[in-house]
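Structure tokens please, single chain.
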Amino acid sequence: MGSPLGNTRMMVDFLLEKLPADLMDLSQYQFGYYDYEYKNKEDDFLELANRMIEYKKVIFCTPVYWYSMSAVMKTYIDRFSDLVRIYKEKGRGMAGMKMLALCCSSDEKEFNEFFMPFEKTAGYLDMEYGGDVHTWVAENEIPKEVEKRLLNFCKMI
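Here you go.
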């Protein structure tokens, strides 16, 4: 998950009530930006990647910030380069996993391009891209339309 609080967390909590899943909150880990010299060996990235690889399915959940995923989510995905360059066996361990994505924005307006980085990342790593869902909150609640979307999303998982 790319945001520990707020509207995205509301969506994640909804999913956690419906699915047998574990939560890995990226904000609870310390990892640096991608480094072409691979000097980030003392941070939490590898630990987090190892945990993720143990699963057959992974859902990336993020708020929409300036038409893109959260910074911590982008930083984490950028570090996948470590998995294909220096930790190649771990990177190969992602092949066959199913990746899905959820975003939560401030309103109903969707941008199809938003999910492209997730879909392309899955393809690059030989993962199956299982789909995505755009969500939003209205008056501090999950609207009925979003509940329907989330329930349909659960079926994709």
